[in-house]
Amino acid sequence: MRILTCLGDATSIDTWSNTPYFLLKAGKSAGFLDEGWRLDTKVLRYHRLAWNAARTMKRLEMGGFQYSQPFLRRLMAQVGPIDAETEVLSHFPLFPSLGSGFRRTSYYIDATLAQNFSDYGLAGRGGVGKAMAADAIARERNQYEAAERIVCMSRWAARSVVERYGISGRKVHIVPPGANLPPDQGPAFGAKQGGPLVMMRLGFIGKDLRRKNLHFLLQIADVLHARRVPVEIAAAGFDPAVGPRHHLMKAVGFIDKRHDMPKFLRFIRSCHFMCLFSNAEAFGLSNRESLRLGVPVLARNIGGIADTMLEGCGHLFEPSAQPEDIAKAIEYYVLNPDRYWALRQSVAARSTEFSWEITVRKLQAIWSGSDQYAYERMKSYA
Question: Do strands 149-152 and 172-174 pair parallel, antiparallel, or not at all (unpaired)?
Fold first, then answer.
């Protein structure tokens, strides 16, 4: 028996960008996963307050309750008895904790805690205290040492597991996740496809506007507008009332996949490119969703973003690229629309490669003993 777990309810589409939900559905369909744990972190909010208060009284650092041993013990108390041979596949590297009675544990992660603390700035400055971060990373290393295997969503994360934590590359694997979309949804070609690009529509999805770098995308739009290229930024994922206002941007707000998946699909399909120019990004699932629907991607080579794409499915720019550089690439397609539609057809032809079905097949191969996706084989490309 194999159980999927995360910080929250692994069976809910509302948990962690929908990833556990769609992995669990595809995994159960393929016979790879049996069930997911329904953990409730909200019931621990009062324990969090008490924990922070106690640390304040002791003049200790505040922040980082979810990485603490008291939090993990209370979370573990929500799990019923299971057979000792049952395997747990966890998205969170500190759970289930060593000594909690589980003999077989593997991980499927987008980033290590060290990457989260540094690249995402979660350590210090009012976030996770330095002492707590150091303690969590030390325990994380022990978790990896005891694990049967660690599967990373990107080469960026795998490098950290091997080089930062000193884990053998033979038990570290690289398998990007699928698009968090219904399995029957793929590219859709309509009568409007083909012909001139009258209005270049650039898509953006994100709540953390600063980290996702919406401002940079607006600068690209300004350059295109100055060059007399008709352009519109279609932005989703944040409240338009609190986001920036720009004459070239149309903000549509947050789109709830649980209640309005068709609207989410229409939003992506209406764009010529989906764009992700983040300052920090463990992976970038919006890229996978876009490519699954046949829409090419423009992105910055930061963190794990490179592994969200395949060659010939868009453009990956170096972090030093300026808005003018990206605008020039976009303008090329406006001037040569046949090249754009050829690119879109190329993406559509490979859309199944971004599905959870393919991801689960790769995971099954690893669990069957294959080293095809092992870090040791792929490190020369990492």
Answer: parallel
- Architecture of the domain made up of 2-178+356-381: 3-Layer(aba) Sandwich (3.40)
159: which 2 tokens?
Answer: 């490098």
User: For the chain, where do the domains classified as CATH 3.40.50.2000 start and end?
Assistant: 2-178+356-381, 200-354
Look at residue 127 in the predicted model and tell me its pLDDT: 73
Q: What is d(CA 369, CA 8) in angstroms, rounded to the nearest whole number? A: 30
Per CATH, the number for 200-354 is 3.40.50.2000
Q: How far apart are CA 272 and CA 322, in angstroms?
A: 20
HEC profile for the chain?
CEEEEECEECCCCCCHHHHHHHHHHHHHHCCCCCEECECCCHHHHHHHHHHHHHHHHCCCCCCCHHHCHHHHHHHHCCCCCCCCCCEEEECCCCCCCCCCCCCEEEEEECCCHHHHHHHCCCECCCCECHHHHHHHHHHHHHHHHHCCEEEECCHHHHHHHHHHCCCCHHHEEECCCCCCCCCCCCCCCCCCCCCCCCCEEEEEECCCHHHHCHHHHHHHHHHHHHCCCCEEEEEECCCCCCCCCCCCEEEEECCCHHHHHHHHHHHHHCCCEEEECCCCCCCCHHHHHHHHCCCCEEEECCCCHHHHCCCCCEEEECCCCCHHHHHHHHHHHHHCHHHHHHHHHHHHHCHHHHCHHHHHHHHHHHHCCCCCCEHHHHHHHC
Pick from 98, 66, 104: which is nearest to 82 by CA?
A: 104
- Regions of the chain where pLDDT drops below 70: 122-126, 189-192, 379-382
pLDDT number for residue 192: 52
| C-alpha closest to that of 287 among 303, 268, 271, 274 | 274
| pTM recorded for the entire structure | 0.95
Task: Give me the pLDDT at residue 129, please.
Answer: 85
What is the pLDDT at residue 281? 97
Question: Do 170 and 376 meet the contact criterion of CB atoms below 8 Å apart?
Answer: yes
pLDDT for residue 58: 80
